[in-house]
Amino acid sequence: MNFWTKDILEQVLSDAKFYGDFDEFSSCGVCVVPTYSSAGKIHILRKSDETSGISENFLEKEEIRNNINAIMCTDYEYFKKYGYPIIEVKDIQSSLYEMACFIRGRYSGKVIAITGSAGKSTTTQICYDALKQYGVDGNINRANTVYGISWNMANYDLNKPYWVNEVSLNRGMFPSARMVIPDIAVITNIAPVHLTQDQSLELIAKLKSRIFTEMKSGGSAVLYKNMEYYQTVESAALAKNLKIVTFGLDTDSDIQVITDEFSGIKVYGRVFEYSKYPVPVHVLLDMAAVVGVFVAAGLPVDENLFQSFRKFRPIAGRGVVMNGYFDQNRHITVMDESYNANPLSMELTLNGFNSLYKANENKLLVLGEMSEGGAQTSVQHENLAHTIFEVNPSRVILLGKNMSVLYEKIKDNLDCHYYDSVDKIIDDISNYVVDNDYIFVKGSHSTELNKLINFFKTQFKKYGK
Fold it and tell me: Is 141 exposed, middle or buried (0-12, 13-18, 19+ CB in 10 A)?
C-alpha cells in the first residue's frame, strides 16, 4: 500500500523541502537499513558524520539504486548528485517519529505493544506468527527503540487488522507509548536490567507501566502475574481503566502454564496440551502471553492457535539449539542464549535447559556476566548459585568481572573456571568439551559470547553437522 504521497508528507513534515519530480510520487514506506531495501521505498541516506540512515557507500549496489524512489536526508546539496527526488529534513529521527505518529492516527485496527525485561522479542515473534492468518505487521526485526519503532511503523499497512510492536524502555518509554498508543499492552516481566546505581526494581516497574500512558479506557493489559512489583503494574493499568488479563505459573492466573504430566496452558479453566514432552517454562510463558493477547482481542483460543505455537522456532541467541561434531570424536549439543542476560532470564533459561537435559551426565554451562544490574549487581550474580546447583552441571565456565563473586561461591563444589575474556575461553574450550556434551551459553551482549557460538558453528561446518 503506497500511503506516503507528497501531500501527506508536507502535512506531516512541516520543515521538509522537496526537490525533483514529485508530481506522481507515492511510497509504501521508508528504508533505513540496506538489508531491508525494497522497491518503492523512500531511502534514508546519511553522510559519514551522521548516524541515522544508510551510508552512501551502499549506493554502489545496483539493486539498492534501483529500489530508491526518493531520498530523505538532511543535506540536499550533498546528495543531489545521485539524481533522485529528495526530501530534505532537519532531523531524520524526529521526522520518522512524526511519520509514525501520523500513520498511527490514521489506523483503525488493533495495536499490540509488548514490553518487559525479558522475553519480549520471542513473545513478539510468536504473536506475529499467530496473527498472520488474520493479517499483521510488526517490528519482528527487534528494532524496539523509539527510532526503530518509528521507521517500522512508517512501513506498516493500514489495511492489516493488527500491528504488533516490541517496545523497549528507550528514552523512558513515554515517546514510544505516545507513538504506538496500544489497544493491548503486554508486560512480560520486571527484572533488574539496564539499571544505573541509583535505580530500583520498583522504578523499572513504574517505567514499564508507562506503556499504558495513552491507552483508552476499556483497552487491555496482559500481565505476568508472578512478576516482581505486580501490584505496581496492576495499579497503573487500573488507573487507566484497562481490562486486565493475567498469565503465569499459579492457579490464580487467568492463563496458567502447566508443566506436570504434559506441557500446556490452561485458559480460564480450559486445558490445551502443547506437548507431551518437557518444554522450558519461559517458552510456555511467552506463549501464554500471546494467548492473553488473543483473549483481549476477542480472537479464538483453539487448536489452530496452538498449532502456530508448535511451528515456532527460536530466534538466534534466544534459545536456538544446535548440534554437530566439535571435532572428529566429540559430538555436542549447544543451546544458544547468548544475545543478552539479566537475573530473571538467566534463571528461566537455565531452568529450561535443565528441564530438557536433566538426565544427561555431561552438561557444560558457559555463563557471562549480567551487565547494568544496578546497585545489587554483586548479589544478583551470587544468587545464581542456587539455580546452577539445581542444574548440576559437570563443568562451569564463568566470564566477566561481575562473575568473580559467583566463582568464589561455587568453585569448591563444582568444576568451575573463571575467565576475563571470551577470546581466552575460545582458546581453551577444547580442554572442557567432552563427547555427548550439552552446552548452555548465556551472558549479556557485552560479553560477546556470540563469538563462542560462532566458533561452535565453524567447528560443526568443518567436521560436518
Answer: middle
If you search the block for the grid coordinates 481503566, which residue do you land on?
241
pLDDT of 97-107, one tens digit each? 999 999 999 99
Which residue in this structure is represented by grid cell 476477542? 298
Averaged pLDDT for residues 379-404 = 97
Q: How does pLDDT run across 224-252, given as a tens digit for each residue?
A: 999 999 999 999 999 999 999 999 999 99
Q: Which CATH architecture has domain 97-310?
A: 3-Layer(aba) Sandwich (3.40)
Cell readout for 444 is 549479556
Q: Tell me, which fold does domain 4-90 have in CATH?
A: 3.40.1390
Annotate 136-194 with DSSP letters as a single string: EEE-TT---SHHHHHHHHTT--TTSSEEEEE---GGGSHHHHHHH--SEEEE------S
* Alpha-carbon torsion, ordered 206, 211, 215, 217, to 10 deg: -40
Are 71 and 99 in contact, with CB atoms under 8 Å apart? no
Helix and strand numbers, DSSP H then E, in the chain: 17, 23
Q: Tell me, yes or no, if the pTM score tops 0.85.
A: yes
CATH architecture designation of domain 320-463: Alpha-Beta Complex (3.90)
Separation of alpha carbons 409 and 384, rounded Å:
10
The single-letter DSSP state of residue 107 is: -
Q: How far is CA 457 from CA 99, 323, 431, in A?
A: 41, 9, 18
